[in-house]
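Task card 7
Instruction: Convert sequence to structure tokens.
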Amino acid sequence: MIEMKNRFHLIFLAIVLAAAAAGIANTSMMSTVERTREFGMLLASGLRPARVIRMVLMESVLLGLIGVLMGSLVVGSLLVLFTGRTGINYALLAGMESADIAFGGVSISYVIYPRFGPRQLLLGFLAVTLTSVVASTWAASLTGRLEPAKAMRP
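Output:
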């Protein structure tokens, strides 16, 4: 039973990370497209493409880490503070009266008890840093391949 719950937990985390990666990739691409002229000017003034790539990657990592700080420390702390002892009953939110469900021989409760600690914060930082770098690699590589003359044209 525990292995099944861990698998469901990992699947849920993978879905959350995929959604986060899509959001970070979209933000990074839009930021890169909107600043194509600026990157062209930097490249024309002698900045190496590797430096521009690092700039884009660092920007996305910083945005991701700010998101982790705001989400974990502010929202996560408030969630644990208000629902840590009573839990969150998803059955009541959905208008159902069942206390738990069974799926493939595994009983899953509708009540979850949020927990928050240094380990979760560290794992969040690591996951978001890795996700940010992977998600913004495409935008960064496009920026590094810009030709300064073409990038500065209107």
